[in-house]
């Protein structure tokens, strides 16, 4: 039997996480993009699928999605959006965070909270990327075999989804400032 624990972050709590995110953005400016991605990858590898509580593992999968979004050649995330994702991942490039990761059960709680906030901030980017991946998977199963057609369809779908992503983000409210 599991135990459900819920809590609400009030405006002061979010203010604190916004401050941490601003610091991470400063870090992102000093660190090479590939090092930021490597640090995010490293934590995923260190923890492994059985190395964290389920609530953390669920969020780590979202971090995997952010990394994939950056490295997916066919998605070709524009630089402005790639910078947003890199800034979000920069928090995980810092060796010291709010709760040291080695503390069993709780060490990854701050990481899980930050991932949740980041995913809310990048909601439209994530939705567009997931829609693109779904479309690409459908093309694999029903395509006509022509790589030229496939590339053209992917390009058109990518442009459409990235335009939608920008429109929706422009209407949204930013959580992390």
Unreliable spans: none
How much helix, percentage-wise, in residues? 55-70%
Write down the overall geometry.
globular
Q: In percent, how much strand structure appears in the residues?
A: under 5%
Structural class: mainly alpha
Give the N-terminus to C-terminus distance in angstroms: 38 Å
Question: What's the total count of β strands?
Answer: 0
Count of individual helical segments = 7
The run of helices and strands is HHHHHHH
Average pLDDT across residues?
83
Rg on CA atoms, Å: 18 Å
How would you sum up the major sheet? none
Question: Explain this structure to me?
Answer:
Helix 3 (54-71) crosses helix 5. The chain contains seven helices and no strands. The mean pLDDT is 83. It is mainly alpha-helical and 177 residues long.
Q: SSE layout and pairings?
A:
Blueprint: H1 11-30, H2 33-47, H3 54-71, H4 79-90, H5 109-121, H6 123-142, H7 147-171
Quick description:
It is built from seven helices and no strands. The protein is mostly helical.
Throw out a few tags for this protein.
mainly alpha; 69% helix; 177 residues; 7 helices; 0% strand; globular
């Amino acid at each position: 039997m599991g135990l459900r624990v819920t809590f609400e972050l009030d405006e002061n709590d979010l203010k604190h996480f916004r401050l941490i995110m601003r610091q991470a953005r400063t870090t992102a400016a000093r660190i090479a993009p590939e090092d930021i991605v490597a640090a995010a990858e490293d934590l995923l590898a260190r923890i492994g699928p059985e190395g964290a509580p389920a609530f953390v593992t669920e969020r780590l999968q979202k971090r995997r999605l952010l990394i994939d979004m950056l490295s997916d050649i066919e998605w070709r995330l524009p630089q402005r959006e790639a910078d947003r994702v890199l800034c979000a991942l920069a928090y995980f490039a810092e060796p010291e965070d709010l709760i040291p990761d080695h503390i069993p059960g709780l060490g990854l709680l701050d990481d899980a909270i930050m991932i949740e906030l980041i995913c809310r901030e990048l909601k439209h980017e994530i939705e567009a990327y997931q829609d693109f991946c779904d479309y690409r998977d459908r093309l694999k199963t029903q395509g006509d075999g022509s790589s030229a057609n496939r590339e053209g369809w992917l390009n058109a779908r990518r442009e459409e989804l990235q335009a939608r992503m920008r429109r929706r983000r422009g209407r949204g409210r930013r959580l992390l400032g």
